[in-house]
Amino acid sequence: MQMNIKKIAEMAGVSVSTVSKIMNNYSDVSEKTKKRVMEIIEQTGYSPSNSAKTLATKKSSLIGVIFAGELNVEFTHPFFVEVLNSFKKQMGVLGYDLIFFSNEKFISSGDYYSRCLHFNVDGCVIISGQKMEPAIRDLDRSSIPCIGVDLELTGTKSGFVMSDNFQIASKVVEHFYLLGHRELGFIGSTADSEISNQREAGYVKAIESFGLTLNRKWFVHGDDFFESSGYAAMQQLLKTGSLPKAVFAASDLLALGAVRALKEQGLRIPEDVAIIGCDDIEACKYTSPTLTTIRQNKERLGVLAAHMLFDLINNQSDGGSFVVEPALIVRESCGSRLTG
Amino acid sequence: MQMNIKKIAEMAGVSVSTVSKIMNNYSDVSEKTKKRVMEIIEQTGYSPSNSAKTLATKKSSLIGVIFAGELNVEFTHPFFVEVLNSFKKQMGVLGYDLIFFSNEKFISSGDYYSRCLHFNVDGCVIISGQKMEPAIRDLDRSSIPCIGVDLELTGTKSGFVMSDNFQIASKVVEHFYLLGHRELGFIGSTADSEISNQREAGYVKAIESFGLTLNRKWFVHGDDFFESSGYAAMQQLLKTGSLPKAVFAASDLLALGAVRALKEQGLRIPEDVAIIGCDDIEACKYTSPTLTTIRQNKERLGVLAAHMLFDLINNQSDGGSFVVEPALIVRESCGSRLTG
DNA sequence: GATATTTTCGAAACCGATTTCGATTTTACG
DNA sequence: CGTAAAATCGAAATCGGTTTCGAAAATATC
Q1: Are residues A319 and A208 in the same domain?
Q2: pLDDT at position A101, please?
Q3: What residues of chain B lie within 8 A of the CB of A103, using their CB?
Q4: Strand-pair partners of B277
Q5: Is A217 exposed, middle or buried (0-12, 13-18, 19+ CB in 10 A)?
Q6: Is residue A54 a part of any domain in this protein?
Q7: What pLDDT, in 10s, does the model give residues A112-159?
Q8: Are residue B30 and residue B77 in the same domain, yes or no?
């Protein structure tokens, strides 16, 4: 039978308020009655209604998850999904559950802020590699705690986590350099992807600081971070007739697409062109050649996001950001000449 | 400013009940006042509190998502995640949002049923390839509408969707047969995986109906559906010294693990051993060799699950099940001799 | 044992919606 | 124009909790 607080109170012969106090461990209830009530609660498996609780307290123990920008990707994005997994786990131990907003219902308005109010979420995490959209901007500026993953939120109750994209690019260039490559290309996403832009900027800077010559004709861009964009980008490069010796792709899937295009032309990797991807998604280990890449510490990103959000919710933080260290993972797509 | 129904009523000079009626399009309110109130609602961006609404109506417009069994996998399971993506999208157009229960908070009890009551979910989807756990059984038997994905739920308010595992196995054997393979092996998951068992049973049956001889020594099992299990399973097979000519793995990741083990021994695929996986996850396209597999129609599984759940919620169905057709996807891991 | 203090408990208002049912207003009709 | 019927609206109870504040009971103090 469906229980509620009143029934519990009656069964235990106490008032509703007493039961409530026990559930929220107030100090003004004796051990004796607490024990008696708890027994009944356990017997009946009573669990207080979240709606009623939320209505009364304005706290829902719910965290909203928003996939901004790249629609229709959501759960199948190999990088974000790993961050999300770690985030969810951590948020779970902190006592929160996750709610995923459907974009479809309010697809025209995309009004994330009012959806947050609608559900009374305690906070939310916004996942995106694209530039800030207006709907996100509103949420960022609101008083609802927000954490961006790969998205720079700057509101007073906001924060973000991301990998150090400059360092990522720098590690790539260093690796290429030590392998003797001097002609470096780049495959990025669209111009409105902040992440792609940062990686590109870092790449350019690193190329210059290593004293290499920058050749813009080897810089191409796809429409997103997916495999087919990498394929198209590499085809574009192939058409020019001039190929760099090494290419850094802003995501592993872009890299994989580039590999496919090269293979189709009978080119060998890494002998003809060396490739480095970015993210270290699962698939890197299964491809041929296996993909040398820069690993983003997805678990740490998720855990950090969770803790930052928790602190924001509990007013123990004013936001800010965490940048986590990337790591070079050497596999086959660059060769592996010993590097001094 | 945070709105509520009372403020809207005051601003419009009507009663709270009138506003509520407008939001729920009752017929007993005139066009004139409806228009006036709607203007204010739009100006203020008012969105009624879901908690209050749920409390009053017992309907939350929320669907609970449960990953049963394989803990810690959740969002990174390449097959389920694609089903989930399609499910979420479809559920969104039907007006529902998704809520993911954290296993951590109640890890000991794992009491999914009370969590559903706690959140007043209108229904839930249970995702799992493992055998039924008791906590799931309780939920299945309850009056809460449930749909299992790859999980046979039989409660009166339950249903399930899955691929036709016998047909999957049958297509595999047929393909092997036409390629001339007579010595067939199998790599499955643990014995308590219903899905793996069905595929194995179907495989055995197909082998017999093709008049081939069944050799149990080539049947091995891993601890789950993941790559490392496939690797371990194939190593086990290698140790026996006798190898089948063709192996069907109950998941693509198992297949990929097997491929890795074979490659390590210098064996060629498909020349020495042909491999067929199952699911057709993204990675199949990027591996070397690319993986011949049986495609599960993940999008259709998700859409069907959504519609079945919707009908269950709205009492337009008594449950039941949908089995979707699999399709053989020929890539490189079996060779591709023309199969007249 | 009387009084002061501390513990323990419960009544009632409140959160923001829905929904019933009766009252009032408007329209229809003779 | 008067009355019956239909359309329109609002008061109030309700959903299941939380929280304040005052009362009652238990304990401490002298």
Answers
A1: no
A2: 84
A3: 92
A4: B293
A5: exposed
A6: no
A7: 899 999 999 999 999 986 767 888 899 999 999 999 999 999 999 999
A8: no
Residues 107-146 of B with CB under 7 A from strand D: none
Rounded average pLDDT over A288-314: 96
B189 and B304 share one domain: no
Q: Which residues contact A161 (CB under 8 A, 6 or more apart)?
A: A147, A148, A149, A150, A301, A304, A305, A308, A321, A322, A323, A324
With beta carbons under 8 A apart, name residues in chain B contacting A115: 47
Nearest CA distance, B206 vs chain A (angstrom): 30
Residue A87 sits in a domain whose CATH number is: 3.40.50.2300
The pLDDT of residue A76 is 84
Residue A102, pLDDT score: 74
Q: How far apart, in whole angstroms, are the C-alpha atoms of residue A65 and residue A104?
A: 15
Both A197 and A286 in one domain: the answer is yes
Residue of A nearest to B74 (CA): A85
Q: Give the pTM.
A: 0.93
**Could you tell me how many CB contacts below 8 A there are between chain A and chain B?**
154
- Residues A77 and A152 both lie in one domain: yes
Q: Which residues of A touch B285 (CB under 8 A)?
A: 227
The amino acid at residue A220 is V
Cα three-residue angle A186-A175-A305, rounded to 5 degrees: 75
Residue A331 lies in a domain: no
Q: Write out pLDDT tens, residues A268-291.
A: 999 999 999 999 998 898 888 899
Interior angle at CA A147, CA A142 and CA A153, nearest 5: 65
Max alpha carbon distance in chain A (Å)?
A: 86
Summarised one tens digit per residue, pLDDT across range B211-263 is 999 999 999 999 989 999 999 999 999 999 999 999 999 999 999 999 999 99
CA distance A2 to A156: 42
Nearest nucleotide to the CA of B15, by C1', is D10
B15-29: pLDDT as tens digits: 999 999 999 999 999
Residue with tokens 């069905």: B198
Q: Strand pairing partners for B146?
A: B124, B158
Query: Closest Cα partner for A255 from A282, A220, A217, A293?
Result: A293
Q: Which helix H or strand E contains A82, and what residues bound it?
A: helix A78-93
Task: Quote the distance between the C-alpha of residue A57 and its chain's center.
Answer: 30
Domain of residue B118, residue span: 62-163+298-325
Co-location of B169 and B289 in the same domain: yes
Q: Are residues A75 and B88, on separate chains, in Cβ contact within 8 Å?
A: yes
| Polymer length of chain A | 340
Counted domains in chain B: 3
At A197 the three-state DSSP class reads helix
Q: How does strand A320-324 pair with strand B62-67?
A: unpaired
Parallel, antiparallel or unpaired: strands A62-67 and B246-249:
unpaired
Quote the Cα angle for A146-A105-A111, to 5°: 35
**Which residues are registered as beta bridge partners of A327?**
A295
pLDDT of residue B332: 92
Same domain for A196 and A273, yes or no, is: yes
Clarify whether residues B194 and B266 are in a common domain: yes
Residue A125: name the closest of A102, A153, A105, A106 by CA: A153
DSSP 8-state symbol, A287: B
